[in-house]
Amino acid sequence: MTKKIAIIENEVVVNIIIDTLENAQAVYAEVAEVVGSVRIGDGFVNGSFVPQVDPPAPIPTTLRPYAMRMALLHFNLLDSVQQAVTLAGGQTLLAWEYALEFKRADPMVQGLAAQLQLSEAELDAIYTKGAEYL
């Protein structure tokens, strides 16, 4: 009788076929009958399928001005940043008002983050939230 069979290589499901278990075992080094929901990429450890965990999305390194301001507004930081920028004046004020993008590694961004005592995790959260507005 044919069944759903997982082809396994290095403890990872690399394919799922419909065949008899006997035929699959004759052709492939490691196979297992699929029971329940199994996807290509899932793990197979100690005779059990382990769902694949998607890696976290990368943290953006650049935001456009609208996205940056919306993220800061979300975290109730927009007013504080605008005050810090106004106090800094000069190049910082011009960059805040006219920049086409805000790179996370930019000295202005790093300086404002330090002035507002934002942690790396908080800066990550700002850039991650800002990516929702791109």
Q: Which spans have pLDDT < 50 for at least 5 consecutive residues?
A: none
User: How far apart are the termini?
Assistant: 52 Å
Mean pLDDT: 95
Count of beta strands: 7
Shape: rod-shaped
Order of helices and strands: EEHEEEEHHHEHH
Please list the strands of the largest sheet in the order they lie side by side.
Answer: 2-1-3
The multimeric state of the shown protein is single chain
> Radius of gyration, Cα only, in angstroms?
25 Å
Estimate nothing, just give the exact number of structural domains: 2
The largest β sheet comes out as: 3 strands, antiparallel
Helix vs. strand class: alpha+beta
Question: Could you characterize the architecture of this molecule?
Answer:
The protein has helices at residues 21-27, 65-74, 78-88, 90-98, 107-115, 120-130, and strands spanning 3-9, 12-19, 31-33, 43-45, 48-50, 62-63, 102-103. α2 (65-74) crosses α6 (120-130) and α3 (78-88) packs across α4 (90-98). It has two domains: 3-50, no CATH class; 62-133, no CATH class. The protein has a three-stranded antiparallel β-sheet. The chain has a two-stranded antiparallel sheet with strand order 4-5. The protein has a two-stranded antiparallel sheet with strand order 6-7. The chain is an alpha+beta fold and 134 residues long. The radius of gyration is 25 Å and the shape is rod-shaped. The protein contains six helices and seven strands. The model has no long low-confidence stretch (mean pLDDT 95). A hairpin with a 2-residue loop joins β1 (3-9) and β2.
